Amino acid sequence: MRNISKTLMGGVAVAVMSLSTSGAFAQDKIELIYSDTVPESDIRSETLKTAFGECLGEGFDFKPYFGATLFKQGTELTAMQRGNLDMGALAVYDFYNQVPHTAILGTAYLYKDYDHMRQVWASGVLDDLAQEVEDKAKVKILANPYIGTRHVNIKGDKKIMTPADLDGVKLRMPGGEGWQFVGEALGANPTPLAFTEVYTALQTGAIDGQDNPLPADKAMKFYEVTDQIVLTSHLVANNQFSISLSKWNSMNEEQQAKVQECAINFEKALDKVTLDQEAELVDFFKAEGLQIYEPDKEAFRNHVLEVYKASKYSADWPEGLLEKINEL
Q1: C-alpha to C-alpha distances, 113 to 106, 222, 273, nearest whole angstrom
Q2: Are 95 and 258 in contact (CB under 8 A)?
Q3: Would you list the DSSP string of 287-314?
Q4: Which phi and psi angles does 261 have, rounded to 5°?
């Protein structure tokens, strides 16, 4: 009986040790909760899951939520600061109230094109601004994947060649005063609306148009309820792929390095996907019956920049930064 008892007790000890060890392994796995506005079916979501999520490997538990099902568009930064969210694809306008200097990054026609945008970010001229975001907003920008160049997409057959032609057009823009100002600077009547509600609003006539990159127009099927795409190229759009500073600081150096590596992997993968799509989509939209044309871009650029320079936003631009960006 004594031997049997010893055997049983030994078995229990082994079982407890096994449970304890497996629990330790589970606790060592880093959970990363991510929220995004785009639907799960979007190619951006698929690219995120493979290029970032799978890249992380077994040491992480990446949990992405899409279609604004976890947090509404524009609320992600607050959720990250409160510890309710680990990661998000933040727009530069999300930072404005806490880091006013970031206003310059939301300026329409700041970048000439994709190559210029990449050159600016690689040059180091934005390093101080990124550090200010980290210090004040308590999030770390890991990468800034390109999501396409934004153009005006509207209903009707009125030709839009200059900002004056957008007068009275109800143009959907994301919520937030920075986004609304972009619409105003373009010459339109900006209307705040959630991304997920745009299709229905176009369908019912609640808005006359919206602005998004071509890949988003296709993914959300806006071409079904609009008539033309005006290639204004007013914003070379890139999201700030970010992690809360508290989550970042909770990881060791090896884990941080892995997250950073996979963020850059995602940036490169999404850049390629977006550029490939943009090269093909003009023909796709034409085949769908949409008018696609270039307006007087110089008229748009000059008007928009003059509106910005006369606004409160230019007062927040870091001194000399616009000139440095223009020189690149």
Answers
A1: 14, 24, 16
A2: no
A3: HTT-EEE---HHHHHHHHHHHHHTSHHH
A4: -60, -45
| Nearest-angstrom CA–CA distance, 294 and 323 | 27
Global pTM reads: 0.85
CA distance 242 to 89: 6
Is it the case that residue 183 has pLDDT exceeding 70? Answer: yes
Asked whether 263 and 56 are in contact (CB, 8 A), the reply is: no
Q: What is the mean pLDDT of residues 306-315?
A: 93
Nearest to 239 by CA among 124, 113, 94: 94
| Burial of 116 (C-beta count, 10 Å sphere; 0-12/13-18/19+) | middle
Per-residue pLDDT band at 176 (split at 50, 70, 90): confident
Q: What is the pLDDT of residue 28?
A: 83
User: What CA–CA distance (Å, rounded) separates 266 from 311?
Assistant: 35
- Cβ-based neighbours of 287, under 8 Å, separated by 6 or more: none
